[in-house]
Structures are given as structure tokens and as C-alpha cells.
Amino acid sequence: MSLKSKPILPLLFLTACWPALFQHATAAGRQSEDSPPAAAYPPPGRLVDAGGHLLHLNCTGKGGPTVVVENGSGDFSFVWSLVQPSVARFTRICTYDRAGYAWSEPGPDPRTFQQITTELHTALRNAKVKPPYVLVGQSYGGFPARAFARYYPKEVVGMVLVDVVHEDSRVFIGGRPQRIREFAKGREFPPPVTSYHPKAEQERPPALDEASAPVNKLEPPLDRLPAEVQRLQLWAQNEPAFRRAVSAELDWSPEELARMYAERGKPEYLLGDIPLIVLTRGEGYEDKGLEEERLRLQGELARLSTNGKQVVAEGTGHNIHLENPKLVTDSIREVVEAVRRGKRITASAQNQAPPAAARAERAQQPCMSAPEHRQFDFWVGEWDVRNARGRPVGTSRIERVEDGCVIMENWAGGEADGLTDEERAAIRALDAAFVRGRLNWTYEKDGQKTNQTSRSVDLFLLTRDPSGNWHVIRQMWTALPK
After folding, report:
1. Coil, strand, or helix at residue 176?
2. Between residues 102 and 3, the one the model is more confident about
3. How many domains would you assign to the chain?
4. Among the listed ranges 18-27, 89-98, 117-126, 422-431, which one has the minimum average pLDDT value?
5. CA distances from 280 to 74, 187, 289, 336, 406 (A)
6. Chain-wide mean pLDDT for the chain?
7. Contact predicate 351/312, CB 8 Å
8. N or C terminus of the chain with fewer C-beta within 10 Å?
9. Residue 92 and residue 64 in contact, taking contact as beta carbons nearer than 8 Å
């Protein structure tokens, strides 16, 4: 989505269910007397059946894995015109317009994430665009991208999230920060419609602010697009079908976010170990508390995969793909190459080498220098976890966070076959982020072993269960002889 306002969390959700704000979802400008007919702008791609209605799919380039892009709310496939040609030089990339956008025909309601991903999956299949896919989601598009990975996990091998929204994010509504999920009405999720036969009399949600005047001048950063693409933008954003489509999508967003928040941490809502890069805009909130919360939630998105990282795009606003298309292209390339070579995503340079002033400030913190605060540095890394009989019970990635003052474990439970009842219960407890019982497990990495046992040093952990309640748990550690 393209924002007029400076640093605030995506206005796509500000517009979500509140018609008075929809005028900001499309770029503001001056009145235009006429909107050119669709025939004046033939689609750059092709129209593909998505289950009874046609979606516009524009695929360029060759090679694999194929990059598939989900736009922000109110955005069109051509908004990626500063990125798509560069990506097409090293792999195939497909942008598309969701139902009701630009050349795509309206689709069935409600516009749940499963409905959206079902249509995209059907269109890709009918267009013979075969998996595996690397998904790119920007802003609102991060939600259907994550949903696609949830419903078709075997087909998704990587992901790039471009300043996407977290399900627990707060945005300004009515002058104060509020969580979109709190506007959920508890509506029941219907199954997706796979064979759509629209009826003329079918009721559809009214278009938000449909009576507002069209525009003929784009504001930054849309003015960075080529002139011919700007003309497409002006035509497409003034189409009544587009406004109704945005309204229908965002009407269901609170329900989806409420469910994602309630189900957070469950395996199907995580991304396993696929390569993942989360790009976060550099321009943030002036309010310190909101800004810290924003960055923390963006960091959580990077930890959806045990093979992910966060990169802060300094000097950019929400539309990183328009303001710094090279960074977006490079991030897509990095994920594609990680998939091709079977390698892990490397830590970003900004995290490896902070400015000298920042390094000096951090060095003065006791947790960065005092030996008693560095005793668990040996645990940092990626581990295969086995029980006393050598059977795998899970994997674990350990990292230092909060400027190195906190050690965080990202746990993923493994197969429970052949384990004791106590160990199965412990794995379920670890998957739920709440540990009880006495275990004797070994962490192995590159031939090096350490042991989590009930015989030695005290370790107290702060952890949160799926309901959001915090607990302090106690572990005892000793190191196995080398």
C-alpha cells in the first residue's frame, strides 16, 4: 500500500473497517473529470481462471524457485515495476492482482485469507506455474503470504516480508493506538469457494468512500514509478470494483488477526526453517514505547522461521519496494540463493558490525562484558536435541537478544516416537513454551555436546504460554565431558 503519512504503521489497516479513513488508502490528489476505460490499458500479463473468475497474473524471467508477490492493500501488480525486472534477471517472478483489483475480476465473499490464497493457488496451477515458491509479501500482503505457507507448506521454500503488519500491532484509530484484532466480531470462518458463479443480484459490501472524487496526481512515493505505470495507477485506483474489493478484504481482517493471535506459536502458524528475511522500515514512531513495540514485533516476525533475520531499511518509510527497490531485490536474491544452495540466511551486516559509538555503549553494559553474564555463550547457536538414548526430540536455535543481555531459545519439537511418556509431555510443554518435569537431554552441534540435566547449575527462565501468561521456570545444567 502507498502511504501519504510519514512513519505510522500501515494505513491499510487504518482504512480496514473505517470508511472515513479510506481516502488515505489511495494516493491523494486533485480531481479528474474522467477515468479512462479499462480497454485503454491492456494487461501486461494474462488473465487466468481462479475458480470461476479471472485473475491477472504477470510472470517474467526464468529459473526457480519462482517468486510470487502479494501486494499491500490498495496496491496493484505494477507497483513492483521497480523490483520485478531486476528479479527477473536471476529467477522467475510472478506479480498478480487480487480479485477486484485492476484487470482481475471480483471474487466471492467473504475475503478470508484462505479464500485469497485458494484463488492464487488455483491461478498458479492453471497457469502451469509450478512450485516451489518464494513468497514476497508487503504490508497487508504479509498475511496472505503467511497464510499461503500455512495452507500449502510443501510448496513454499522461502519468504521475504516487506514492512508487513504483525497481528498484535497497534495502529492509530480515532486518534489513539489500537489493535485491529480487537475489532473482531467473532464471525464464523466459512470454507473457501472453489467454483464461483456470481449472480447479478448478489449483495456485496459497499465500496468505502465510493463517492469520493477521482485523482489525477500521485503523491510520493508513487511518483517514483515510471510515467506509464503512474497512468495505470490512476486508472486502477479509480475503478469502483477496486474500492469494493479493498473494503471486502479489510472487513474480514480483524477476524483473521484475532485468530492468528490466538493460534500464535502453533507449528502451522510458524515457518519451520525456510529462509526468511523481514525488512523493517527505518522511519518509526516518535513515541518511544510504540516504537520499541513496533521493532519488537518486527523481530518476532523474523523468528517465525529458525532460519530468518530482520533488516532495518534505514531512511525508508513503509513502501520500501518503492523507496529502496535495490534492498528488496537483494533480499529476494539472498533467499533464492539460500534455497538453491541449501544454505542458511546469514546475519545482516548491520547486526554484525554496529557503529563504533553503539559498540562502545554496549561494551559498557555489564551483560556484555562481565564474565558472570557470559557463562552461557557456549549455548548460542543451532542444536540438535537428543534424549539419553540418543533419539531426536527437537531442534533449538539459541541467540542473544536485547543488545546481548538476554539469551533466547527458539524451540521446535521433533518426532516423539520411541520416547517415554515423560519426554512426550516435556516436548508438548516446550512447544507450548512452558516447561515442567525432570529431563536429561543432550544438545549436539558439530560434534560438540552440552547437557541439560537435573543435577547441576541453576538456570531460571522467563517464558510465556499460548494464552499469553508469563511463567518463571527453573532448569539445572551441567556440561558433558568432551
Report:
1. strand
2. 102
3. 2
4. 18-27
5. 20, 32, 17, 19, 22
6. 78
7. no
8. C
9. yes
Is residue 264 assigned to a domain?
yes
> Which range has the worst mean pLDDT, 46-55, 98-107, 431-440?
431-440
C-alpha distances in Å from residue 455, one per residue of 299, 380, 480: 34, 21, 12
* Structure confidence by residue, pLDDT tens digits, 142-174: 999 999 999 999 999 999 999 999 999 998 877
- Cell matching residue 401: 537478544
Q: How far is CA 404 from CA 279, 335, 368, 376, 400, in A?
A: 21, 26, 6, 11, 5
C-alpha cell at 342: 541449501
Of the residues 323, 341, 359, the one at which a domain ends: 341
Q: At residue 356, does pLDDT exceed 70?
A: no
Cis peptide before 132 (omega within 30 of 0): yes
List the beta strands (DSSP E) in 373-456: 381-386, 392-401, 406-413, 441-445, 448-453
Residues 29 and 131 in one domain: yes
Paired sense of beta strands 276-281 and 156-162, if any: parallel
Query: CA angle 157-115-127, nearest 5°?
Result: 60
- pTM, whole model, 2 decimals? 0.68
What is 219-247 written as a DSSP string?
PTTGGGS-HHHHHHHHHHHT-HHHHHHHH
Both 322 and 417 in one domain: the answer is no
**Euclidean distance between CA atoms 221 and 201, whole angstroms:** 39
Greatest Cα pair distance, the chain, in angstroms, is 80
* CA angle in degrees (0–180, nearest 5) for 267-423-391: 85
Cβ atoms within 10 Å of 433's Cβ, excluding its own: 17
Closest CA to 232 of 132, 117, 331, 101: 101
What pLDDT digit, counting tens, does each position of 289-323 carry? 899 999 999 999 999 999 999 999 999 999 999 99
| pLDDT, tens digit, 9 for 90 and up, residues 43-72 | 999 999 999 999 999 999 999 999 999 999
Domain span including residue 388: 371-478
List the beta bridge partners of residue 66.
Answer: 133
| 227 contacts: CB under 8 Å, gap ≥ 6 | none
Element (H, E) at 13: helix 11-14
CA 120 to chain centre: 17
Q: What is the pLDDT of residue 267?
A: 92
Residues 6+ apart with CB under 8 A from 256: 112, 113, 143
